[in-house]
Structure prediction request, 223 residues.
Amino acid sequence: MARARRLCLCIALALVLGSPAAQAASAAGATALDRYLNGLESLSANFTQSVKDSHGTLVGAGSGRLLVQRPGRFRWDYVPDSKLSQSAGTGQILVADGTNLWFYDRELAQVTVKPVQSALSSTPIMLLSGSSAQLHDSFEINAEASHDGLDWVAVTPRSTEADFNRAELGFTGERLERMIVHDRLGQTVELDFSHSARNERIDAQALHFEPPAGVDVIGTPQG
Prediction:
């Protein structure tokens, strides 16, 4: 369950962490994902999340807030649904401050910190944080038929080492509305985004993290 949660966090955040100067794919081959990444500098959005097991049974849900400042800075604040989780009201915070990647589990009162570059490059999923050209080198990306009022793009990793089999992303114009991730354990993670604001100013303090007093800190922050 925790693995699935962190997986979807990585994918969602990786999508919006690349350089704002990244070049889009050629007009003939550009997908809604390419167009979304092109020119993206910052993003703020609310999200809801649900996780289903291989039998289609709902095993987790929650909601939260996403803030992104490209390149390389973000904050993902997640709180589980009290009806489906014993850890309701606790949740997790994931913050990349440009130097370090911080993961704070409120329930465990534990913070893990890693150098952001080594953390983001530790899984093929995080290659989505790069340019459109890098993305196409590492993943098979195909436009899918529109449905549910969204333009869909399917992302399949070329590497057999990836943690997921397939991701589907639904867009409306320049907005990412929905993401569906199928992991290698048969679980499906669905995220719905709302109240998105593109390329608006984000308070720098929100992208800074200080471990709360009294929590265990694993790792040594850089810089």
